[in-house]
Write a structure and sequence with these properties.
mainly alpha, 240 residues, three-stranded antiparallel beta sheet, two-stranded antiparallel ribbon, globular, 7 strands, 2 domains, 12 helices, Lysozyme
Length: 240
């Protein structure tokens, strides 16, 4: 799974963006820059552009998304976003401790306990944990069908449940195993992530093969799947 815009906005709102290296706590080993980017690659006196700050955010999000995906817990988008924000702030170790041997409701409750630094409760951390808990507990409105054929959309042209399950082991770890669950994941998340769900269609190949589609759809990956279903297959366009 990938972080939605709502999750990104939450992280940005609490991290803020600073284009010159700083230390929030003087005893920290490394410097921080951009949207909370921290590490040995940040040096004292370093400055960056807004574009570089955005680039750091993208790479950092990918890392923390990996930590959340590795938990093997079936999450909806809001729960995933909340845990990415938590991991971005508290790290992978605290993420694992938060989620270990807990149900989703228990995780939501326990989130509020991680509001201390150096043994002291910090108001900023308390506010962040409350916002993460609020997002975690917010239901996701499903707007897509869970069946292979919906109206004129025959997802069998771009989706095969067995292929999808075998290609992505994270789905099994998240207990997404039935054909309906796999298809729902593909439509809700997989298409946005550019996942391949059948041997005869690769969305990135399809996108790269046709400049007219790139001009129309740009980076809207689900649109390429839909185009292939509704027009591309009949037009004889190649997708592999």
């Amino acid at each position: 799974m990938k972080t939605s815009q709502a999750g990104i906005n939450l992280i940005k709102s609490f991290e803020g963006c600073r284009l010159k290296a700083y230390k929030p706590v003087s005893t920290e080993r490394y410097w921080t820059i951009g949207y909370g980017h921290y590490g040995a690659d940040v040096k004292q006196g370093m400055t960056i552009t807004q574009a570089q700050a955005d680039s750091f955010l993208v790479s950092d999000l990918s890392k923390f998304e990996g930590y959340v995906n590795a938990l093997g817990i079936q999450l909806n988008q809001n729960q995933f976003d909340a845990l990415v924000s938590f991991a971005y702030n508290c790290g992978a170790g605290n993420l694992r401790s938060l989620c270990a041997n807990r149900t989703l409701p228990q995780i939501a409750v326990k989130l509020l306990a991680y509001n201390k630094a150096g043994g002291k409760v910090l108001s900023g951390l308390t506010r962040r944990r409350k916002e993460e808990q609020k997002l975690f507990n917010s239901p996701v409105k499903q707007t897509v069908s869970k069946v292979p054929v919906t109206g004129s959309l025959d997802y069998s042209l771009v989706f095969n449940a067995t292929f999808y399950a075998n290609k992505y082991p994270d789905l099994k770890r998240a207990k997404i195993t039935t054909a309906d669950q796999l298809l729902n994941h593909f439509i809700t998340y997989g298409m946005k992530e550019g996942r391949q769900a059948i041997s005869t269609f690769n969305v990135l190949t399809y996108k790269n093969n046709y400049p007219d589609l790139r001009k129309e759809y740009k980076d809207n990956l689900p649109a390429y799947y839909i185009h292939y279903i509704t027009h591309g297959k009949a037009e004889g366009r190649k997708a592999i």
